[in-house]
Amino acid sequence: MRAQGAACSRCALACPAEAISFEDDGRPSIDADACTRCGICLGICDAFASPRITMDDLHERFKRIAERGEDVVVTCKENIFPGLEPAANVVVLPCLASLSPEFWTLVLAENIPVKLAADLSYCADCDRAGEMGEMLYTHAIESAEAATGRTVGSLDSIPEKENLLKDMANPVGVDRRSAFENLVGDVGDIASGKRRLRNSEVLHEFLERREKARAQARLNLSDGIDFENFVPQGRTRKTMWPRRKMLLEAINCDPSIADHASVTVSRTDCALCTNLLACADACPTGARHRDSTTGQLAYDVRYCSGCGLCVAACPEGAIELVEATAAVFLDSEGEGTCN
């Protein structure tokens, strides 16, 4: 959006290390030496993404953990100390603020049992994200809880990997016979390969490499993405931002979320619009486009990112940005025209 003239600078304002600046063409640039890899920019803007794993990949991981009948436990690197080996259901983030409100909303809408296991007092002294991280992840989680009516739980400690001899070495509350039977069961798992499959470092490394390859393929990092102005059918190519896609998926799970989730979108005063289509030419997502049959302005609010480029482009002053709830995606059924 900035490359087309938008003035958004939320990523730079949120970056705790002041590592983000903007090139002459408006595109963001990251100072690799100053960047702490906190991931806050990932939760702020869809233009930023990890080359190792996308938000879609992370969402799939949450679902896999839940499908195993386990709680998803989320923590940050600041809470992982030497010698601590988190269990397989623990997701370790560079900072909790790397997850957007839309991500948390989708997770809660899908009834995925998720809990935080982090000493939040570490946030103030965190070299990676500092107080900015605490402010942003608190906002994200509170927004998701308000939209869904569900809550993110908490744990006092981070679950660790299982230890075969734990019951034998520390039989507190467990008699020797029960401890032995548990050990025999664990050995049976090893013989069948189940435990080896769960805890194999080789498997973890393989899954990490696969996730990285999938992330790179989705991001198309090597070739870049060229946005077409119009396809042969006369429609602007539409680009669904990941955060908007997650919000729509959450609403699909629970339509009541639409009345509680806030969005910023553009609105056209059709009495002033003369279909000059300057807004369609300026729109970076394809939310505003030429109707393929009539050639007049068409508008798909689901793709609107609220960037405001259409407002500046309209010579009639027929467009404004408005605060609304996500119910606008349901009320308009996604499409609108000025005839």
Structure write-up:
There is one protein chain. The chain is an alpha/beta fold. The protein has two domains: 2-161 and 193-216, no CATH class; 242-337, Alpha-Beta Plaits (2-Layer Sandwich), CATH 3.30.70.20. The protein is built from 13 helices and eleven strands. It has helices spanning 10-14, 40-44, 55-67, 101-109, 130-148, 166-169, 176-192, 194-199, 201-219, 242-253, 278-282, 309-313, 328-331, and strands at residues 20-22, 28-30, 72-76, 90-93, 114-116, 153-154, 262-268, 288-290, 297-299, 319-325, 336-337. The strands form four sheets. The protein has a four-stranded parallel beta sheet with strand order 4-3-5-6. A three-stranded antiparallel beta sheet has the order 8-9-11. A hairpin with a 5-residue loop joins strand 1 and strand 2 (28-30). The two termini are 28 Å apart. The model is unreliable at 194-199 and 220-235 (pLDDT under 50). InterPro entries: 4Fe4S_Fe-S-bd (IPR017896), 4Fe4S_Fe_S_CS (IPR017900), Fe-S_Ferredoxin (IPR050572). Residues 1-25, 26-56, 261-293, 295-324 form the 4Fe-4S ferredoxin-type domain. This is 4Fe-4S ferredoxin. It comes from Enteroscipio rubneri. Keywords: 4Fe-4S, Iron, Iron-sulfur, Metal-binding.
